[in-house]
Amino acid sequence: MYREITLLLLIGLVAWAYQAIQPPPPKICGSPDGPPVTANRIKLRDGRHLAYKEHGVSKEMAKHKLIFIHGFSSSRHDEPLVTQLSLEVVEELGIYSVSIDKPGYGESDPHPNRTMKSLALDIEELADQLGLGSKFYVVGYSMGGHAVWSCLKYIPHRLAGATLMAPVINYWWPGLPANLSKKAYNLQLPQDQWSLRVAHYMPFLVYWWNTQKLFPASGVISLRPENFSPQDLQFLQKLAQKQNHRMQGMVTQQGVFESLHRDMMIGFGKWEFDPLDLDNPFPNNEGSVHLWMGDEDRLVPVMLQRYIARRLAWIKYKEVAGAGHLFAYADGMSEAIVRALLDRSK
Ligand SMILES: *[C@@H]1O[C@H](CO)[C@@H](O)[C@H](O)[C@H]1NC(C)=O
Ligand SMILES: *[C@@H]1O[C@H](CO)[C@@H](O)[C@H](O)[C@H]1NC(C)=O
């Protein structure tokens, strides 16, 4: 009797736990109970839709075309590069930019089988369907940096140049010295160390971990002020007034699992390659790769970024003094970043 009750309780507990860790299915855009489709979208060869938004001059008029990939908890509306240039500069440079919603974000269909490689192939397919030509630029901000590393690995022959803006580092890249990686990891808030551990070692628990209320979950998701530099906090305030897309929940309208949590599992999971092993994609100087970083960034440790820049000497590393993670919103910064990318001699 006693044993049977214990067994029943155990079965109940397992069933409850199983329920609790299961993410609900995503609310697909355009499906009967999903949000409406309002964005321009292409249909990829596997049937998924990818939403995009165009900026700058028309692609027919453009001298330079770039694809912009947003960071964590953002969307195609967050393109702080060409959208921040004056009309004169846009026309002088002849620049066109297209920003996407990463799979599962905004109006792009979720991709439960997403990998590092699939994102590079999505970008290549977008370029081809939009007719951007044989070569284009890629720029990724923060977690969008993963897409750029992936393009450098899988489609380097398609790139005219690339820029990484405060790219997020995976502490488990094998090429990072263990002691340095550990030191940088320990700079993160304890709650963020835990959400990274869960994302890396127990991805099946990511949904539960970041939705339960017993322990503090990701401080990046909850915008803990400790994660932002004084300059970042100013920009956050300004952005909150300007951007209402984020407040409307558009970013994660299809569910947090296929957007935020999938991003964490891929970004901090086991990668199929190590960026520190990459070769110069432009050995004959046909293009350049830039990495911009604020020296007061609290989300991405600058000490690791400096190490990466030293190891990959073909990357043009620019550290911005006094800047945090959101430095792209500083006056004149977007113009400096775009001009450096387009000008091969810099
Ligand atoms: C994901 O991969 C599995 C196994 O390879 C496959 O059966 C499934 O159809 C894929 N799903 C999507 C949405 O691509
Ligand atoms: C890590 O170890 C290497 C080699 O033992 C040493 O040169 C370096 O200073 C150490 N770095 C840190 C941050 O402790």
TrEMBL record:
Q: Where is the AB hydrolase-1 domain?
A: 66-329
Which keywords fit this entry according to its UniProt record? Answer: Signal
Superkingdom of source:
Eukaryota
Q: Which residues form a coiled coil?
A: none
Q: From the UniProt annotation, give the residues forming the signal peptide.
A: 1-20
- Name assigned to this protein: AB hydrolase-1 domain-containing protein
